[in-house]
Amino acid sequence: MKTREMVLAALFAAFIGVLGFIPPIPLGFIPVPVTAQTLGVMLAGCFLGRKTAALSVILLIVLVALGLPLLSGGRGGLSHLIGPSIGYIFSWPVAAFCIGWMTEKVWPKLKTWKVIVINFVFGVVLVSLIGAPVMAFITHTPVWAGLAGAAAFLPGDCIKAVLAAIIAVQLKPISPIEEKVQNT
């Protein structure tokens, strides 16, 4: 891994951490709040590419595990990685990797709508399909109830998917993916 990629991974971990300072929106009927951090996960994937994006999110999780208050609401430490949000948080590296992988596949013919679809499938649907059943298991509720509760995230997550796609397409010339494509 090049130094530039390591620096970008660290910067995106910091960016996702900064998004955690935006106050979470508790929903009341589901123990997982709405946060802005999934925007950072989606943006990391569609801007950095698969490996660097996944590394940035893994770095964020390691920093949270070490106690840094980088999760929404200024939470940090191992205790916050074993609650109802764990499925969502641990789905982030998978989502970032998948978003990056698919974005790299369509990069030569990159269009905003393609990145929106990629972000929706992997940044919204995949995260919910991993996070909701884990949340249901931890809270001792039926999986269908967890998935139904996760539907509350859809409007905000769709907006985040569109924002991340627009930003990534605008930043295409400076993306590390562009550098990889030009070097091959």
Automatic annotation (TrEMBL):
Cellular-component GO terms for this entry: plasma membrane
Pfam families attached to this UniProt entry: BioY
Transmembrane segments: 30-48, 55-73, 85-103, 115-138, 144-169
Subcellular localization: Cell membrane
Gene3D superfamilies with a match to the protein in the record: 1.10.1760.20
GO molecular function, one term: biotin transmembrane transporter activity
Major location (coarse): membrane
Top-level taxon of origin: Bacteria
Keywords assigned: Cell membrane, Membrane, Transmembrane, Transmembrane helix, Transport
Membrane topology of this protein: Multi-pass membrane protein
InterPro entries registered for this protein in UniProt: BioY (IPR003784)
Family affiliation: Belongs to the BioY family.
Protein name (database record): Biotin transporter
Organism expressing this protein natively: Paenibacillus azoreducens
Lineage per the UniProt record: Bacteria, Bacillati, Bacillota, Bacilli, Bacillales
